[in-house]
């Protein structure tokens, strides 16, 4: 089987649209036994891609979902006080954390949203990545098997709730950056996720979310999840809609998926309704509220909407 055929098989198996270059680098990295860090905006499929590769490796895995309360003890493990009283400090009284389990089990440790974990907890990973060993107090060393890997995801540092990884930790990862996909690929994803066959509705939903990413008053725009929610709501309403109703549905679908700049002198509902109106009236990049696009571009949809 050719290399390209292998990537196509992977895409088909895990229903991944596009991402050929990223999949090629990711599969190459894990084949070379490299720890991998996938980084990109919210909602672009980092977790799905990482989980697919973890499953593809077939060596077992342990998952960590990062948050600011995730402690060193929770990652590596801890002694259960009642059991210590009965049996002393031993493996029987030790509750292994996912890092210890992955190393001892010769498996993959999948860390979702790594940069939401406190730096002190992150540092527990360093000896496991460098020397493939961690030292547990009162128990001694735990050594990793040949298949032990860490595959992690994170959002860019400018997103709320994230922190900066230490330089020492970043230095030990093979980094793969992901960005928003093309309009055509997003339409494929949207069709796949919603089952919608109305190409005009798909195109309009994709055009709307892509416009949010360029609006000058938004700190960040919507991912494909916004388009999925919008199309699902339209279909749930019977598939028929009027511009005013679509505008209100778009506000509900996108309100929690975009962020307003602190300096902006407008509201999210107003911006979203403006973007929808511009998309209905003709394609173009979102501009300041109350202004018209300066340049027309080829429409994603094939004919005007009613």
Describe this structure in words.
This protein has 306 residues and is of the alpha/beta class. 44% of the residues lie in helices and 14% in strands. It has helices at 3-14, 20-31, 46-57, 72-76, 81-87, 98-104, 119-122, 125-130, 167-170, 183-194, 199-212, 224-236, 243-254, 268-281; strands at residues 36-39, 61-65, 77-79, 94-96, 108-112, 133-136, 140-143, 149-154, 174-177, 218-220, 259-260. A hairpin with a 3-residue loop joins strand 6 (133-136) and strand 7. Helix 10 (183-194) crosses helix 11. The protein starts with a helix and ends in a 25-residue tail after the last helix. Mean pLDDT is 85; it is low at 284-306.
CATH class of the largest domain: Alpha Beta
Question: How many β-strands, per DSSP?
Answer: 11
CATH topology of the largest domain: Rossmann fold
Average pLDDT works out at: 85
- State the distance separating the first and last CA atoms: 49 Å
Quickly give the structural class. Answer: alpha/beta
- Return the CATH architecture of the largest domain: 3-Layer(aba) Sandwich
Assess the beta-strand content as a share of residues: 5-15%
Helix content: 40-55%
Radius of gyration: 23 Å
Oligomeric state as shown: single chain
Give the count of helical stretches.
Answer: 14
Mind telling me the CATH superfamily name of the largest domain?
Answer: P-loop containing nucleotide triphosphate hydrolases
Order of helices and strands: HHEHEHEHEHEHHEEEHEHHEHHEH
So what's the overall shape?
A: elongated
Give the helix/strand layout.
Elements (H helix, E strand, L loop, with lengths): L2 H12 L5 H12 L4 E4 L6 H12 L3 E5 L6 H5 E3 L1 H7 L6 E3 L1 H7 L3 E5 L6 H4 L2 H6 L2 E4 L3 E4 L5 E6 L12 H4 L3 E4 L5 H12 L4 H14 L5 E3 L3 H13 L6 H12 L4 E2 L7 H14 L25
Helix pairs in contact: 10-11, 10-12, 11-12, 11-14, 12-13, 13-14
């Amino acid at each position: 089987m050719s290399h390209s055929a292998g990537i196509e098989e992977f895409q088909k198996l895990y229903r991944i649209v596009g991402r050929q270059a990223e999949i090629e680098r990711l599969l190459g990295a894990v084949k070379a036994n490299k720890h991998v860090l996938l980084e990109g905006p919210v909602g672009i499929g980092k977790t799905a891609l990482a989980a697919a590769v973890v499953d593809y490796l077939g060596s077992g895995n342990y998952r960590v979902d990062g948050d600011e309360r995730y402690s060193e003890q929770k990652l590596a493990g801890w002694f259960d006080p009642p059991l210590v009283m009965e049996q002393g400090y031993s493996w029987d009284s030790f509750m292994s954390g996912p890092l210890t389990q992955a190393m001892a089990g010769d498996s993959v440790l999948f860390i979702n949203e790594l940069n939401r974990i406190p730096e002190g907890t992150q540092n527990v990973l360093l000896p496991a990545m460098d020397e493939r060993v961690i030292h547990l107090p009162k128990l001694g060393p735990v050594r990793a098997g040949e298949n032990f890997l860490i595959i992690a995801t994170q959002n860019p540092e400018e997103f709320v709730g994230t922190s900066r990884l230490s330089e020492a930790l970043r230095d030990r990862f093979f980094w793969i950056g992901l960005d928003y996909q093309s309009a055509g690929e997003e339409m494929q994803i949207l069709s796949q996720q919603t089952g919608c066959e109305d190409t005009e509705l798909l195109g309009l939903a994709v055009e709307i979310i892509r416009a949010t990413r360029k609006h000058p008053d938004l700190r960040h725009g919507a991912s494909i999840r916004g388009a999925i929610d919008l199309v699902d709501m339209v279909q749930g309403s019977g598939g028929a809609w009027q511009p005013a109703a679509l505008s209100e549905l778009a506000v509900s679908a996108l309100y929690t998926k975009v962020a307003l700049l602190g300096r902006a002198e407008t509201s999210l509902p107003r911006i979203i309704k403006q973007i929808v109106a511009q998309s209905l009236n003709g394609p173009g990049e979102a501009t300041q509220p109350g202004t018209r696009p300066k340049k027309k571009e080829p429409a994603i949809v094939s004919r005007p909407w009613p």
